[in-house]
Amino acid sequence: MKKIIKKYKELHIKYKFLAALTFFVLLGVVFGFLYRTTDCGTDKQCFNDLTFQCKRAQVKTLVDVNLYEFETLGTSLTDFEFDKCRVDVKVLSVETADLSLYNLFKDTKMTCRVPKGEIKEFTDLKDILKHCHGSLKEALYEKVIREMYTRIIRNLEGIAVQASKSLTGVGL
Questions:
Q1: Which of 29, 35, 101, 172 lies at a C-alpha separation of 20 to 30 Å from 107?
Q2: Is the CB of residue 56 less than 8 Å from the CB of residue 74?
């Protein structure tokens, strides 16, 4: 009788183990399927089509001369924003001779929470920028400010020269 009970317990433990193993394998397959990311390579249209549907995808693309990686992570469940799609953007390489610009954009990234159905061109930074936050957004704004400052200074020099010519013509 003790042998039968012992054998029954051994079988019971084996079946529990097999049931648990089967459960975790199935769970892994389901999560693997749900969280599978489609690699669009460099095909922007593939990425934009999948992202418009808020499906997981990634693409590497050139914006100006810099290489960016865009990745859609699906609906943002952790933030309870079910009507928004999460898109992460990071700079993979910066191609510039200007060391200050290189340092400004090196290792920058941003996270965007874009309302579903609002944008069709997710690889266009100016379209998604208002929905983003992070070091890449700050770097882009800093670059714009630098360019505006340079243009203003350049134009002020011309205005100052023209004003001094006007003043000499008046006899001052």
A1: 35
A2: yes
Both tokens assigned to 18: 């097999």
Q: What is the pTM of this model?
A: 0.69
Residues across the chain: 172
The CA distance from 89 to 111, in Å, is: 6
| 144: its two tokens | 């714009």
Segments making up each domain of the chain, as ranges: 1-36, 38-136
Q: What is the pLDDT of residues 86-138, one digit of tens each?
A: 999 999 999 888 888 899 999 999 999 988 878 778 888 888 899 999 999 99
Strand arrangement, sheet containing 57-63: 38-39, 57-63, 66-76, 81-93, 109-115, 132-134
